[in-house]
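Lab notebook, bench 4. Continuing the backlog of folding jobs that were queued last week. Each job is logged with the same field layout so the records can be merged later without manual cleanup. Today's entry covers tRNA-dihydrouridine(20) synthase [NAD(P)+]-like, a 493-residue chain. Filled in by technician R.K.

JOB TYPE: sequence-to-structure
TARGET: tRNA-dihydrouridine(20) synthase [NAD(P)+]-like
LENGTH: 493
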Amino acid sequence: MIVNSLSLCYHNKLILAPMVRVGTLPMRLLALDYGADIVYCEELIDLKMLQCKRVVNEVLSTVDFVAPDDRVVFRTCRREQSRLVFQMGTSDAERALAVARLVEDDVAGIDVNMGCPKDYSTKGGMGAALLSDPDKIEKILSTLVKGTRRPVTCKIRILPSLEDTLSLVKRIESTGIAAIAVHGRKREERPQHPVSCETIKAIAETLSIPVIANGGSHDHIKDHLDIEDFRRATAASSVMVARAAMWNPSIFLKEGLRPLEEVMQKYIRYAVQYDNHYTNTKYCLCQMLREQLESPQGKLLHAAQSSREICEAFGLGTFYEETTQELDSRRAELLAKTPEETREPAEDPSGVIKMAVKFDRRAYSPQITPKTCLLEWCRREKLAQPVYETVQRPLDRLFCSVVTVAEQKYQSTLWDKSKKLAEQAAAIVCLRSQGLPEGRLGEESSSLHKRKREAPEQDPEGPRAQDPAKPGDLCKKPFVTLGSTKESPLEGW
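JOB STATUS: finished
OUTPUT FIELD FOLLOWS
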């Protein structure tokens, strides 16, 4: 049994609630600035996290958990480490423990979502679906308490009857968790339904561990003083704030709410500094603007299609330019320190040329893909068409592909979520290894581009592969055959 490091105290705390799409790094840091004691990340699903690799991002000074397609699933930094609780969505004890061990060095606590009523959570047996399976709840929490070095908590909703609710929370307490957050509504209820302060109070009077009251934003919490009133009404140890903090994170400030314009500008600065995706930034700002979305500034925000445009809408264009230049300089510095050989394609003992690349649809024209570029090149050079060998890994159902061209095999070391994406990545490795165009937006046009505009894209292995090749402007650099092997490079995976 692992002894938990119970350094995080849940007594008398102001807490930012876990909120999907809202509880990313910029919002968490902003909440801390305004006085939150503890911040929860948005719910992250166990299966998705188990696909991730922990990466230290030296450019942003963050720790990133990166999916096989190079998307950042979870990002954190040192400043929040001692006050950050990682909330997961799970329905399996062993997966939950694996995720906890993956992130425990970068967070202060581990929480299990047992209250989300949304279909995407409950259909997988997660969230509020767990409330009807106390045995599973007990197994998940007991496994986490015994197996992780961080305090474990859970967040629940109340059951139809007070008797059943109290019976459940007593059983939860017996697992050894550090605290329990209670949203004072039933599974089927929504924010417009009144929160049951009486039920939360009964739970707080029954348990010996801290009870965190949640669900007061709609009826009770309009400013900072209301938070304490809600705590007293529920007799809870602490209060967790969701919607009121989403609308204006300065709700945590003792001195009172700050002007929304000031709050939003501060949020945007964090979003740019930590390379938050503009769609997430835009979503959070829209939640803050609410009824002002039809204002001139709201319309500018609605029209924004990049972080730059968001900054310009709020008078932060200069800040964006200066910050991105600084980040670019850091990247260049780090790249200069990276040995050149680590950036070149590598050939492993089996003769397969490998690179860590991905196919990002947004970087390519809908009609021109790496696979079509490679096929066209092979036709013009009178080579056999590329042959793709793709396998699926049972553990996480991800795909990896090897393409053979002129008896040489090429493969991306990054696994993808679909067969098509894996094949495109393998084609990219081949094209880049030979210095050939791959169809990225901005590359010089060629006869291939012209021809593809005239007809919709078809499977390169389909009937189009039988069409006669047409002359084009693609690079005619020949492939260098580095040897071949009859053994599949994917054998044994």
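OBSERVATION: Residues 478 and 484 are 17 Å apart (CA to CA).
SIGNED: R.K.
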